[in-house]
Each structure stands twice: as structure tokens, then as C-alpha cells.
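Researcher: I'm comparing several assemblies side by side, and this is the next one on my list. It has 652 residues spread over two chains. Same procedure as the others: predict the full complex and return the structure.
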Amino acid sequence: MSKKILIVDDEPRYVRLMEANLITDNYQVVKAYNGEQALEIVAAENPDLVLLDIMMPILDGFTVCERIRKFSTVPIIVVTVKGEEQDRVRGLDLGADDYIVKPFSATELLARVRAVLRRAAKPTGVQVQSVFHHGAMEIDLAKAEVFLNGKMVYLSATEYRILLQLAQNVGTVLPSEQLLRDVWGVEYQKDKEILWVSISRLRQKLEEDQSNPQHIVTRSGVGYIMPVMPEGSYH
Amino acid sequence: MTDELNETVILKPEDLRAVYAISLAIAQTENIDSALDLIVLHTRPVFIFDNMVLYLPKEQSGLDPSYARVIGRGKCAEGEIEWGGAIALKAFTARQTSLLHEKLDGWENNRLFWRDFLGLPLKAGDDVLGVLVFGRFGGPPYAPDQIRLAEFIAAQTAQLIENHHLVERVAKLEAERWLRRMQDEFITTISHELRTPIGFIKGYATTLLRDDTKWDDASRREFLTIIDEEADRLHELIEDLLDSSRLKAGTMFMQLQPVKLDMILRDIIVRSTARYASLSVQLDVDHEVMVMADPIRITQVIDNLLSNAVKYAPGSPVKISLANSKECCVITVEDYGPGIAQHHLEHLFERFYRVPETSVTTRGTGLGLYICQQIIEGHNGAISVSSEVLKGTRFTINLPCKREMEQNQLTREEQKA
């Protein structure tokens, strides 16, 4: 079945631009021209991806992103404007999975969409009954759900993929480039900023003491590691 | 000073009343002159003087009289304010109350030759803000309790000036802040306005360039039309920016020539209705109207008003009428759209001003009407707006007729000669 993509932009010509290109690539498209509409559609239609413009009157993209994240893990690509670099970071910080900068080319748009959807796809073949334990954290691999002290934690698709990479390699340092390549795709290999923001968000959600992280530890200049828990701390 | 006052001076009831009235006057007015008028008024019954002068520091050095009242016995001699200059300077540099007592020859016959000046520095913290001088002619010299009372009045005056300085400083800072905000907003608006068309051109051009897709004719036409329109918009925007900075720099010159205004209007309407499918314009003119004008600039003004009507009064018909008298001709451009609230009208022609209610939904820079006004004023004409909410908006342009223009030009050349 074709993936359903929600386009949110107050400029009809941008909506049309994205729609025309996405439809020819066999995506199904739903459209919203403001933030309120976007929230309603995300709740009602359960899209597979949201393309979310930041500069919108009344309810801006940041607010929409934040609100979506309160009830949904749908992948979000924020559409920012060149020259507003801080918007990109802020979007990621609020739980967006990726960003695209206006002006963009049609091929760039489609590449980003493909990359994010690929990332969001639930990893297959890990159908082992398993639940992964790490200290107070639990990952239900079958359902792609994460719990902290028994309480469910909402992670975006990207955050979940990072966590999974680290969990599958417990005790091994994963270099930043490798994480970027595996989670985002080869074209993101150099974009350390996007990784930092995501790691920081993950820690906010998972670490009790962020200055002394237990699950995701930085190895300066190299990358990140999920350390082996000391004996007895496994459930 | 005030402490000493408490210790040594016992104020009489009338003194107290005056002191109270003076404090009140200073607390209630920010205007120095009117407060000083009140000080004179309330001081006079309890303290005899012929003139009172307030000296304030000049920008470089020295003092200037900034307020003077000559009353009672001193009224006949206008030059008297000069006489306080020396004592003012002394009090200012010494930073303390100074007295000058002069008895010139012949004082018995001319009381103006017996002069007592009292100079009181106006202190605020470590600064001396100025000097208050009281002059008295024909004696008697100032008594110690009168000097104390005068010092109290000086302290109040110092407070008044300090307040005034603060008010001025706040107003200056506010103005700077406002200007900075306007500039920031302009940069945000302008970069958005420039980037939007570029974003569309780039996006739709690369859409057409995709080699993995064949677009049908209708889509191709649609995308190319968008590219074409956005390129036009970008062009207009750049022209507006250039015009606006030319106007600011005073380097936009009108190429005045005799033009048939009715013809120009007809041309504009043909082009505009072709461009905006939704626009219908009714032209109300039945005879030839000649004016001296720059045809390109006048066209630009009318184009701008029409595109505003399309933007802000969508779907509304537009009526253009042209009337003329001997002296001037009047063009009105009228729509029947949502109108503009009264309190925005006075700002409408300001550079960068945009009506906040529509600025989020409609693209624009706040330059268009500013440019229109400047162009019309460049023709010695005037443009004005009237509007009623839910009824519509009407722009009225007054242009001097051909003969009037020539005469104006003649007068100017005569003046130059």
C-alpha cells in the first residue's frame, strides 16, 4: 500500500509543488493549510509522514511539531528557510526527524522523503520474542516500544532507530559517522549536528541524570556507546 | 540644603502655602516653562523679586538664559536678564548660593542702579543642571530666611529639570527602539518576500526537470505559469526596493511631459484585467484630460492601487473615475471590499507600514503606497485615502493640470533666477 504523506504549508503553491511531485512517486497525499488543520489530520488520518512548514501564521510549525509529539510518533520533516539555521536545530529539538531547506529542488524533496520513510520502517527480521533490558529501561523489540521504570516513553522513529542501533551493539562504541549512515543514510554522514540534537533529546527522555548518563554515553571524538550494565542490574 | 532648612528655618503659614503649591506644580507638569510660570506665580507673594531667570548650560561651555520672567518693578527694562549672567556663572562654577550686591552712582535717583542678585545652583546628585537667578532692584538686600526659601525653590526647580531630562531620554530611547524594530521587521519581511518567489521558481523548475517523470501538458503549463508569475513578482519587488531607496536618496526624477490621462487609464485597465482574471474595472471618464506627468510613474501608481484592490479586496469590482477643473484633475480608485479600520489610515503611506490584520495572510512589503505617495508628490500633487469597514476603500489623487504645472515651473524658475 502506498504511504500517506501530510503536507502542511500556508502557501498553496508550496502545497501544490510538493503534492505534484509526491503523487508521481505514488505517494498518497493529504493537505493542510494551517496548524490546526494539520493536528486534526494527524489525529484522524494517521499519515506515515508529515512535511511541516515552520513559517505559518497563527500556529507555527514548531508548536505543531511539539503538539504532534504529545500523541504521535509519526516521522516529521520540518520545512525551514535558508538563513534561519536556528530553525533547523529547534525543529529537531522539538522532535522532528529531519529537515529540508527552502528553496529546495524536487529531487531533494523526494530524496528526503524516501530517506525518512526508510528510517521509519520497522526493522524486520528482529521478530524474536525479545524484550531488551538495560537498567531501568526496557525496549519491546516486537512492538517498537520503549519503557522507563515501566512507563512508556514516546520516541520519534529516528530516536528509536538510534536507540536500537546502540542496544544491538551493547558494549561497543558506535562512531558518529556510522550512526548517521545507518540511521539517516549515507548522504547525512557529515551532519553531526542532527545527531547531537537527537542524542540530546533521547537523553532527556531516557536518562534520570543527564550529566551522568547510564544508557547513552559519549566517547569523546569517537561516538556513542550503550555500556554493559554491571552484573545484577539486569532485570 | 534641605536638612539645613529643617533645622534653621521656621516657615510662616504663607511660605508653607507657597512651598506646597510649588511642589504640586512641579509634580504635575512635565513642561518646564509652564511649571516655571507656576513657580513665579506662587513665589511672588512671599518673596519680592523683579526678575527670575533660569540659566542652563550651553552645549560646549557657558550658560544660556532659557527662561526669564520680568515682573513688577523691573518691567520697564528689557535688558535686565543680561545682568544675571555673571552671578549665574559664579553660582554654577562655585556650586553654591552666590550673592551680588551693586550700588552704582546715582542709585538714589534710579532704583535700577541698586541691584541685588541671588544665584542658586540647581543640584541633582553631583551634577549642577543650571542656575536660578533672582534679581531685585532698589533693595532691600536678601534676608537670610529669604535665601533659605529661595534655596528650597531652587531644589524644586532642579527636580523639575531632572524629571524633564529623564522624560527626554526615555522618549529618545523609545524612538530608537521603535526604529530598530521597524528595521528588523522590514528585513524579516523583505527576506521572506524575496525568498518565496525564488523558492517557487526553483521548486517548479526542478519539478519540470525531473527526468524520471513525464508531465502532461496541463501540468507543464501550470508549472510554467507559476514560474512566470513568480519571476514577475520578484521583478516587481526588486523594482519597489530600488524605487524606495532612490526616493530615500532623492535620486528619482519625474520625466514630466504632456500626457492624456484618460488614455493612460484605459491602457492600464486593459492590461490589468488581462493580468488579473478576477478583476473588473469600471472607468468613468468621457473627455480628454491633459496633464503634465511622467507617464511611466503615473502608470506605476495606478497599477499599484489596482493590484492592492486585487489583493486586499478580492472579488470586488473597482471603479476608476477622472474629473478635472481648471486647476487640477482628480483620479479616484475605489473598491467595495472589506475596507480598512480608521486607525490604520493615517499610517497607510508610511514606508514599511502594513496593516497587521492582513499582513499575515497577504504578501507585501509596505513599500507600495509609500512609493505611490512619493511619486504623486513629485508631481506637486496629493494622494489621500478614505475607507469604511465592510464598505470599501477609496484613493483620491489630485494632480495639477497642465497650465497649473507650467505656471509652477515658471515660478520656480523665476525664483531661481
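Model: For your comparison table: Residues 42 and 74 of chain A are 8 Å apart (CA to CA).
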